[in-house]
Amino acid sequence: MKTSRKKTTIKDVALRAGVSATTVSMVLNGKDASLPHGTRERVRRAAAELDYRTDFLARAMVTGRTNIVGMIIPDISNPFFAEAVRHIQVELAGKGYDLILCNSEERVDNDVRYLRLLAGRNVDGLIFTPSAEAFAPKNAEKLRSLLAEIGIPFLFFDRYFEGVGPHVAVDNEQSSFLAVRELLEEGHRRIGVITGPRMLNSSANRLKGVRRAFSAYGLTLSDDCIYEGKYDIMTGVSGAAALLQRDVTAIFAFSDMQAYGVYETLRRAGKRIPDEISVMGFDDNLYSSVLEVPLSTMRQPVESIAKEACRVFLEHIAGSSSEPPVCFAAELVRRASVGAPRH
Predict the structure, then answer these.
(1) Domain 66-165 superfamily per CATH
(2) Distance between CA 278 and CA 72 in Å, rounded?
(3) Which residues, including other chains, have CB under 8 Å from residue 238's CB and lie 6 or more apart?
(4) What CATH homologous superfamily does 172-300 map to?
């Protein structure tokens, strides 16, 4: 009969590494910053040699913590969220936390499903970017109630419900104000705007910034120069086609993904950038600097936002008093897609 191998314990690892069980626990739980590098390596090597595996259930029963964080994002194909997740995962791992990632595909029923799933997994906390559908009044109220019901500490990332929990985001209003001011200073007056879903606070605040820039120049943004859609390439394609009918001399896209779609429509129409029409984006995605005409855009400091989100989040789940919302400034990146209009 095959006999089962005796389970390796922390005491076994401690004996092999020549340290205390407390030291082993500190290393294996990622709380070893104060320990010498050699000690940390000796413990990890001993754990590997003995094939030690942490009993997460037992640890959770003792500590009341799983060291697991849940994160729900609306669209993993959006480069902003993909990069943010990468930085958040690295930052949390450095603090001894693992990440369970859920992609809602901009659907509120998935928001609800994943909130309940993560609560059932006893995660220590949630980093949550609600879907576009979640901002419909009835859906928003449902999610507010659900967040209160499950009782897990959470942080809103990028998108948020006003007055509900801490959040970290870019200053969308001021950032879009700077983007449109750049176009106005170049001499553009017929500026088309491609927005995301206007029920999202990110999109609504960017539109506020656009209107504020126009007002600062004694101008008014015409409603027929606004095209609403999603933060994706196809919205940029259709939005640019519609705005070309309005004789705009510049287009401000609320995401670089939309701007890529704008480029495609202008290419098909035989319009040269920026000689015949200028384009401004928002995000500064990976490919924006290597387009045939490099895209002028507002750079979101994704790494800084992600790291600050982790700091605020970890303090929040530790029971620290809640902080005011944290907003980051985006940086105007001037490239080749913006120039003076032809008269």
Answers:
(1) Response regulator (3.40.50.2300)
(2) 35
(3) 227, 229, 261, 265
(4) Response regulator (3.40.50.2300)
User: How crowded is the C-beta side of 60, counted as CA atoms within 13 Å?
Assistant: 11
Question: Of 71, 61, 20, 63, which Cα lies nearest the Cα of 42?
Answer: 20
Helices and strands of the chain, counted as H and E runs: 12, 12
| 244 and 265 Cβ atoms separated by less than 8 Å | yes
Residue boundaries of the structural domains of the chain:
10-54, 66-165, 172-300
CA angle, 114 then 116 then 119, to 5°: 105
- Element containing residue 43 per DSSP (H, E): helix 37-49
- What's the DSSP call for residue 219? -
Same fold, 66-165 and 172-300: yes
In this structure, what token pair is assigned to residue 218? 């004694």
Q: Report the distance separating Cα 115 and Cα 132, nearest Å.
A: 16
Residue 4 CA to its chain's centroid (Å): 46
pLDDT in tens, the chain (343 residues): 444 557 788 888 899 999 998 898 888 776 777 889 889 899 889 888 888 776 555 555 455 578 999 999 999 999 999 999 999 999 999 998 999 999 999 999 999 999 999 999 999 999 999 999 999 999 999 999 999 999 999 999 999 999 888 999 999 999 999 999 999 999 999 999 999 999 999 999 999 999 999 999 999 999 999 999 999 999 999 999 999 999 999 999 999 999 999 999 999 999 999 999 999 999 999 999 999 999 999 999 999 999 999 999 999 998 876 667 889 999 999 999 999 998 6
- Is the pTM for the entire model greater than 0.85? no
Name the amino acid, one letter, at 1: M
Using CA atoms, how far apart are residues 230 and 97, in angstroms rounded to an integer?
33
